[in-house]
Amino acid sequence: MVKSMTGYGKKSIEVGETRLHVEIRSVNHRYLDISAKLPRNLLFIEEKLKRKIREVLSRGRIDLFITVEGQSIFEKKVDVDWRILDQYLEKLKGIKARYDLTEHISIDMVTKLEDVFSVQEIEENTNELQEALTSSMEDALNRVIVMRKAEGERLKKDLLQRISKVSSFLEKLEERRPWVVEEYKERIRARIEEYTREEIQLDDTRILQEVGILAEKGDVTEEITRMHSHLSQFSQILTLEEPIGRRLDFIVQEMHREVNTIGSKSNDAKLTEWVVDLKNEIEKMKEQVQNVE
User: Fold this and answer.
1) Residue 162 pLDDT more than 80?
2) b/e per residue, 241-259, with b = 16+ CB within 10 A?
3) Which of 83, 80, 67, 65 is nearest to 24 (CA)?
4) In this predicted model, what pLDDT tens digit does every residue of 101-119 receive, in sequence order?
5) Is the pLDDT of residue 64 over 70?
6) Which of 31, 42, 279, 289 is the most buried (most CB within 10 A)?
7) Where are the domains of the chain?
């Protein structure tokens, strides 16, 4: 099955008074590249979520976003570092005694002291939270996969149509080949007659030798045969159930090389025109293949 690398999925869940949004975006990439953006207090689950993605996707740039709305996920508590506070107060009392200060040490002053108070999150029921987040991410990931499959079917349909067009152009090249050889004969005969002013028979050995040399130089039979082979392989690969993007990309490169060779051997205007059309179709195939997983 052909799968695209483009996809999107989103799932929201509620944990207590907190609402979590899990969002996954996928675009084409040479390899599997996963980027996760999570709140700091959820970083402990990041690697587990990435492993889940690696289990079902093999290529693409994957962006995972988890956002939080409402109350904090975990309960919070305020801690006091009593040892530091005792040292602060001891030093403040010493300053008062040393300089005969009369001002009292107020609670407002205490709250402004550094490192005395800290806010900690109480991580309770983390297993339940992990299960909820994992389940939500799997739902979002399934939606990504559904979208990638649907887009993949559209890509497959387009690629098959382009394979048909390329085959049609190859048939035209094969059909025109005998006509080109005859044209070589007429061109050489006309050129010799122009210089000798004498009638030349078409079966003249010298003419046939020249035609043979030109025909050999312009022979694209091998290239056309290899092109048919590439198209056959391309069609077969489209039916596989595994990731096929890299294999298709390689075949398209080989097809492009064969068509360039055909173009360099062509001395006929019509053949050159069809070669340009062939290159255009193969270039479009290459663009589509870039998004196949």
Assistant:
1) yes
2) eebbbebbeebbeebbebb
3) 65
4) 777 888 888 888 888 888 7
5) yes
6) 289
7) 7-73+125-148, 75-122, 151-289
* Residues 211 and 188: beta-carbon distance below 8 Å: yes
Any idea which residue has 């008062």 for tokens?
A: 96
Which residue has 């609670």 as its token pair? 107
Q: Compute the distance between CA of residue 63 and CA of residue 162 in angstroms, rounded to an integer.
A: 32
Q: What's the pTM?
A: 0.70
Give the amino acid at 252: V
Say how far apart CA 282 and CA 259 lie, in whole Å: 9
The CA-to-CA distance between both ends of the chain, in Å, stands at 10
The pair of structure tokens assigned to 254 is: 């080989």
Average pLDDT over residues 229-256: 94
| pLDDT score at 92 | 84
Rounded distance between C-alpha atoms, residue 126 and residue 105, angstroms: 42
Q: Calculate the alpha carbon distances from 28 to 33, 37, 61, 259, 292 in Å.
A: 10, 19, 6, 27, 8
Classify domain 7-73+125-148 by CATH architecture. Answer: 2-Layer Sandwich (3.30)
d(CA 116, CA 86): 10
